Amino acid sequence: MTFDNFNFHPMLRKAIDDAGYTEPTEIQLKAMPKILKGFDIRASAQTGTGKTGAFLIPALELLTRSQKKGRGPRILILVPTRELAMQVSTQATKYGKFLKEMKTVCVVGGVSYETQLRKLSKPYDILIATPGRLIDFLEQRKIDFPRLEMLILDEADRMLDMGFQEQVETILEAAPKNRQTLLFSATLQGSVKHLSEKYMNKPMDIIVHSDHEPHANITQLLHYVKDLANKKKLLEHLLQEEEMDRTIVFTSTKRQADILVKNLHQGGHLAAALHGDMTQGRRTRTITQLREGKIKILIATDVAARGIDIQLISHVINFDLPRNVEDYVHRIGRTGRANSKGIALSFATREDTGLVKRIQEFTGQEIDLIEIPGFEAPPLKKKPMKQTFKPRQRKFSPAPKHRRR
Ligand code: AMP
Question: Ligand 1, residues 81, 291, 309, 311: which to mutate, most atoms within 8 A of Cβ?
Answer without folding.
Answer: 309
